[in-house]
Amino acid sequence: MVPAKEAKDMLYKMLSHNLVALQEIPKTPDHAPSRTFYLYTVDVASAARMLLHRCYKSVANLMERRQYETRENKRLLEKSQRVEAILASMQATGAEATQLQEIEEMITAPERQQLETLKRNVNKIDASETQVDETIFVLESFIESTVKRP
């Protein structure tokens, strides 16, 4: 199983995060640690609610991060959209390939790289948000199913 030192570290971390509760059962009235049993219990509903709260915080942080990324790169995103709009209108009018290439070159290589990095980061944020949303759904379903109704 798990070594005692590692188990104690894990239990302390879980206790500090309120995932487990500690109950002392003394053998003698002096409550000496060597003569006391320590029982760890888990209130599953409370732990699920706490995890749900943390998931909501995570989603809020992800949304804030996406807004920050788009706000920091607003100028570049607007430039990219303008170039794409110009390209689309020129393709619709039947422009030559050299003209289209000149318009594409309005976005420099470093800007392209920055756009790719931004798209990759936003995609990761979206995927993370989806995963946290799924976890929220599971936790809410669990909490709802364990609530006792009159």
List the defining traits of the structure above.
single chain, mainly alpha, 2 domains, two-stranded antiparallel sheet, 71% helix
Mean of pLDDT: 90
* Relative helix content: over 70%
Strand order, main sheet: write it out: 1-2
Helix and strand sequence: HEEHHHH
Radius of gyration from the alpha-carbon trace, in angstroms: 28 Å
Question: What can be said about the biggest beta sheet?
Answer: 2 strands, antiparallel
The computed structural class is mainly alpha
Question: Low-confidence parts lasting 5 or more residues at pLDDT below 50?
Answer: none
Number of domains: 2
Which overall shape is indicated by the principal axes computed on the Cα atoms? elongated
The total strand number stands at 2
Terminal-residue CA separation: 42 Å
Hey, roughly how much beta strand do the residues contain?
A: 5-15%
Q: What's the tally of helices? A: 5
Secondary-structure blueprint:
Blueprint: H1 4-16, E1 21-26, E2 36-41, H2 44-72, H3 74-92, H4 97-104, H5 109-146
Antiparallel strand pairs: 1-2
Helix pairs in contact: 2-5
